[in-house]
Fold Site-specific integrase.
Amino acid sequence: MKPLSKAVAILLKKPQSHLSDAECPFVSPSRTGTALKEVRRTWARVLNEAGIEGFRLHDLRHTFASLAVSKGNSLPVIGALLGHTQTQTTARYAHLYDAPLLEAAEQVSQAITQRTRDAAPRRKPMPVRKAQRPAKVKLRTPKAKIR
């Protein structure tokens, strides 16, 4: 059994069906009280009632993995929660959101800036002469050989 958050545990304790707890041991039973074997029609009805288009049930797993990795959880931990045996599978699920990427870029930028300041010698800038001109460069073009 996979670990559940407190919020999910509380949600699962509430009766979710029209059947009483004593009659049905399933979290999401079919209308007859048996195990739900196919969720496509139920999922389509839920999306329709919520006014959501183009959202797959599988997208929930991707969202879970992406949120977990963006919060700093490792791929092996996320994979264990999703039931993956291969870290490569989890890597395909877990996509970083923009905020953690931006934060990481800022951290690296600050580290580079700090190290550059620490390593830079403290010298006076060289004076610039008024008459200084860019050096003239004469380009040589190879002559074509005539046969």
